Amino acid sequence: MKMMAKITNIIEKGMGKHPALVRLYGLYYNDMVEKEIELGQIQSADHVLCIGGGCLPYTAIKIAQETSATIKVIDIDEDAVQTARRVVAKVGLSDRIKITLASGQGVDAAGFSVAHVALQATPRDAILENIFKTASTRIRILMRSPRKHMQSLYCKTHEKYLCNCYKQVGQNTPTMQATWLLTQ
Question: Tens digit of pLDDT for each residue in 88-112?
Answer without folding.
Answer: 998 899 999 999 999 999 999 999 9
